[in-house]
Amino acid sequence: MISQPVPNETVIVLPSNVINFSQAEKPELTNQGQGSLKTRLQAEVKVIGTIQILCGVKVLSLGIILASASFSPNFTQVISMLLKSAYPFIAPLLFVISGSLSIITEKRLTKLLVHSSLAGSILSALSALVGFILLSVNLAALNPASLQCELDKRNIPTRLLLSYDDYNLPYTTDCYKAKASLAGTLSLMLICTLLEFCLAVLTAVLRWKQTL
To answer: Is the pTM of this model over 0.85?
Structure first.
C-alpha cells in the first residue's frame, strides 16, 4: 500500500519541474532578444546621425564654392536665387544639429533630448524639402542659361575680337565648362539633400514612437 503513491508523486513533481524550467527560460531569451534589438537600433541611429552631419558639411562646402566662384552673368542669375535663399548655409547647420542630437540622444535617452531630436529632425526634413525644390529649379534653368551664354558669345562686338585675350574672357568663352561644373555641384547638393530628407524623416518617426 505504501509503494503505490510514491510513483504517483514523482510523476507529478517531474512535469512541474519541466514546466518551471521552460517558463524560466523564455523570459531570458526574450530579454536577450530585446537587448540585441536595442543595441542594433542604437548603432543604426548613430550611423544615421553621422551621415546627417556629413551631408551638412558637404552641402555647406559646396555652397561656399558656389558663392566664391565666378561665372558668366547668365549663370550668376541662375544661382542667385539659391544663394539669396541662404539654403546652402542655413540648411547644413540644421543637418548637423539634427545629426548631433540623434547621437547624443542615444547616449542619454531623456525626454527633453528625445523631443529636441524630434524637433530637429522635422526642421531638417522641411529645409531639405525646400532645398530639393530650389535645386531642381536651378538645375532646370541651366540649359536656358547655357544657350543664352552661347548667344551672347556669338554677338560679341567686333572691337572685342581684335584682342585674343579679350576674346577668351571667362564670360565670353567657358559656357560649357560653367554649365558642367554647375550641374555637377548642384547635382551633388541635390543627392545630399535627398539623403538628408530620407534620414530626417526616418529619425523623426523613431523619435515620435519614443514619445508615445
So the answer is: no
